Every structure is written in C-alpha cells, then in structure tokens.
Amino acid sequence: MRFLTRLFRPTPAVPGADWLVVGLGNPGARYAATRHNVGYMALDRLIEEHGRSLDPVPGVPVRVAVDEGVAYARPTTYMNESGRAVGPLAQRLGVPAERVVVLHDELDLPPGTVRLRRGGSENGHNGLKSLSEHLGTRDYIRVRIGIGRPPSGTPVPEWVLSPVEGDLTPHVDTAAEAARIVVDEGLAKAQNVIHAR
Asked: Residues that bind tRNA, according to the entry (predicted)?
C-alpha cells in the first residue's frame, strides 16, 4: 500500500491544482512572434503577473507553474500535438476537462477580438483537435484570440505561421484577463465582462 501511495502522489513539480490554464503555440524562436502563438503570449503574460517561472514536468512534454491552486502550462510539443501534453498533465493534476482553460488563436474572429466559450467545434484548429482527443471531450473552456482570415490567395498555414502585425499587447492582456476572471469568478462572468467590450 505504501508503494501505491508513492505511485499516485503528485510530483514536486506538479503539486496538484483546481484549474489548468494552457497557452497553445509552437516552441522555438522561429515561431515566437507568429499568429499561431498568441496563446503562448497570453500565458506568458499571466506567468509574468505571478512572478513565476515554468518548470519541466517529468514524463510529460510541458512546462508548468502552479500558483494558488492554478496550474499554468505551455506544451513543448508542436501545436498539432498539444493534447499529448495537456491530457496527461490534467490527469496528473486531477483537473477535470471543464476546469481546463485554453488560450488559442482563432481564424473566425477579427484580429484582436477575444471571445470565450465552452466546448463546440474545433473549427479545423489542429491544436484543439489534439486536446479534444487526449482529454476525451470538447467540453473545456476556450479563450479565443482573433487573428482573422488570410487574404485571398494566402494559404491558412502560411497565414498562421507568419508574424503578427501591429501591437497585440492590448489583446494579449484581454485574453490573460479573461482567463483570470474564469478562474476567479466563472465562465459566465468572464463572458459578460469581455464580450461587452
């Protein structure tokens, strides 16, 4: 029985959490300033606010910081395989899918628009498809950061992997604020505050 207790106790790097906030993106300097990485950018803002650093988790391709019951995570996989990090991490933390908050880019919203919802279609977003597969459900919370559709003749992959234009700071701040409100006061409150802007 002592062995089982050791086996299922959270590792020091992941002490357990009530919420899991995930920023989606691609690792590496090549992708750092691209549209596909606005989720990473919003997560970084939250990490800065809490004065934390992201630490690796043994056996899971992710870096995590935990503060006051909230785990902030950045998968170290490429976008299309994000679920390989988030699924096992949520399980290890004991966080159910309905308490997973995902910050990600959204083609179907104008640039800079931030909207929240629970569940629904992934709209062709391969990072979300991977999350749904590994969490076993679509019923997690999405903080959708608009990047707009590409101009006619520009392929979607080229668009999402190209650098953002203009100053995204206000929109990244709004997305980070949206995640904070979800965790502190719930999804409905966050929608009321953010969608009114």
From this structure: 31, 78, 80, 126
Give the per-residue pLDDT at 169: 87
- What pTM value is reported for the model? 0.90
Q: How far, in Å, CA of 8 to CA of 180, rounded? A: 29
Active-site residue set = 36
In terms of C-beta density within 10 A (0-12 exposed, 13-18 middle, 19 or more buried), how is residue 160 classed? Answer: buried
**Which segments are annotated as binding site for tRNA?**
31, 78, 80, 126
What 3 state SS string does 135-177 have?
HCCCCCEEEEEECCCCCCCCCHHHHHCCECCCCCHHHHHHHHH
User: Hey, what are 168's tokens?
Assistant: 């995204």
- Predicted confidence (pLDDT) per residue in 139-162, tens digit: 999 999 999 999 999 999 999 999
**Best CA proximity match to 67, nearest among 105, 19, 3:** 19
Mean pLDDT, range 43-53, rounded to an integer: 89
CATH superfamily membership of 19-196: Peptidyl-tRNA hydrolase (3.40.50.1470)
Residues sharing a CB contact under 8 Å with residue 13, sequence separation 6 or more, in sequence order: 55, 56, 57, 58, 64
